[in-house]
Fold this sequence. Notes:
Layout: H1 2-35, H2 41-44, H3 48-60, H4 66-74, E1 77-84, E2 87-97, E3 103-107, E4 111-117, E5 120-125, E6 132-139, H5 145-159, E7 163-164, E8 178-185, E9 189-198, E10 201-210, H6 216-223, E11 227-228
Antiparallel strand pairs: 1-2, 2-3, 3-11, 4-5, 5-6, 6-10, 7-8, 8-9, 9-10
Amino acid sequence: MQKKLVSILALLLTAVLVVGCNTSDKTGDSDAQQNEPSNTAADQKPSGDDTAGESNEEEDTPASNDTNTEDASKQPQQDVKYVQKGVDKTEKATESASVDQSYKLQQLPGFTLTQEEPGKDMLVSNDDDEVFMRIETIEASQSSFEEVKTTMQDYMNAVGETVALTAEELTAFKDVQNIEGYVVDFDTEKVIGVVLEKDGLITKLTIHDNDEQDLTDAMLNMAATISKK
């Protein structure tokens, strides 16, 4: 009888130990699950920095140049006719103004007007930067046509043997008080100097051109549109 009682107690003790172990394992599993990082959709969303980066990228996208095009189209325009390599051409020119000189002119497409130095601008061909027209203006009240003409003659004589331009070659210039021009011809290049006085403004032009571009007439016809701002 006593042996049976001991056996029963042993079985009960074993059962209690087994149950306790199972409970401990489950508790451990539960704690492990709670400590595992959550893999929810919220965790997969871009961080605030990423979102900000995307926003900045959108803001940094260059704006359309439609506005610039519209502004250019609002500038005064006129047809400019010229001859290039024996072909008569007519193109729309847009008004451009000098940065620090007191003149404006009609500028053909394919040219860029830039400041060379104070008091001197360069109207340069976009296809060949060795083809250009230097533009210098001075108020007639500050100098005289004869003085400016003398400086031009000195420059042209230093370049080479000069030949005076004919009245026909200067027909693009209308309503001028005074005008004279000279050319120095090389094999495939030429340098042209023109001095003119109109509406109280004395303008000195120096053109460098070559046979490949042949833009002398185009530059002279743009120069003919020079006027005070």
